[in-house]
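Quick illustration for those who missed Monday's session on complexes.
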Amino acid sequence: MYPNELMKILEDNAYVRTGGSPEELRCAHYLQDYVSKFGLNAQLQPFDVPMAKITRAELTVDGVSIPCTGYLGAGNYDVEAPIYYLRDTDPISLANAKGKLVLLDSFVGYWKYQDLLKAGVAGYITCNGSLFLSDRDIDQKEQRTYVHQGNRMPAVNIHAEDAVKIVRSQGKLARIVLEQEEWVGQSHNVVVDIPGEVEDYIAFTAHYDSTHLSIGVYDNLSGVAGLLYMAEYFAKNPQHYSLRFLFCGSEERGLLGAKAYCASEENIQNCILNINLDMIGCLMGKFISCVSAEEKMVHYISAMSAELGFQNDAYQGIYSSDSTPFADKNVPAVSFARNALRSMAGYHDRYDILDVMSGEQMQADFEFVLAFAKRMAAAKHPLFAREMPENIRAKLDNYLGHKRMK
Ligand SMILES: [Zn+2]
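Prediction with zinc ion bound:
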């Protein structure tokens, strides 16, 4: 594939495609059509996802209305309580939070949510955006099922500028009104197989959904283009190991597609390796390889980079992407990405734009990933153990909400 063809994939799908939406499905169909040009067949594998439509979201502080978006999936409320700026979720800050509507300037993930529940807060207000940019976009957040596990609470999101105003004016009393319709919908993984000599297979993953404010080109049509690039090569060049290309749905909603896939023992039992692409091929930035496997893989990738003269920062860790559910099942996993400064290449906002993407850089990055993939696919025995080192296991357990890291 040529650089202009890679850019065309980004251009063709540069629209908001949130998990479970008709737009996400439209992109799934595009991928099906695309791989058919290589003589490959793509299956859509549906999985259930919670859906919601906000019909009313209001926040007032001391009688003044603040623009906000409601948390999807959080339920319906009309609640009034003192407002409290929760600077951190340390015991001292949390001691003052009981019964309050707390204002946070951080992401509420699994453990933070548990802290808020335990502290007995009345609800929470998060914020996004920058004081220094002209847009006043307010992101559409979600109270995720695996985070609340049935214990839901009122929540809205506001712009950072309003958060600062509330703190400066020492806001006293807040009211949240939230109304929404909720139902169960479907998202899809798009699965393409290239059989090899054995059933054991390598899983290539890249998510194709976006967040609400973003057309998701860097994050992650770039990774999607990378999978198509490799699928084209391997369609003509089958290998010792079987290869599976998995375009994941609803990654931005908490890795839901990869989690649904990895929940099946049948899916995962023959998987020897996961190669994940998420945010790659940007004109700017440095290449990274985040390895969730034994340290041997870090050394292997570093040596290969030196051999090919390709800048690459390889390290052991976990990547907030579809590689993580694979690693959780003890499948050696690696995420390849090109990290650019956020002030040059945005994501999850309106600044994830085509202008900073590069067909030439995508091609160069994909050639490197392909070089690694070819070595792995042609090997006669898996190079890396199907087990997680202790340091990675602790990070996985913390990230996925199994066990909190000290
Ligand atoms: Zn992503």
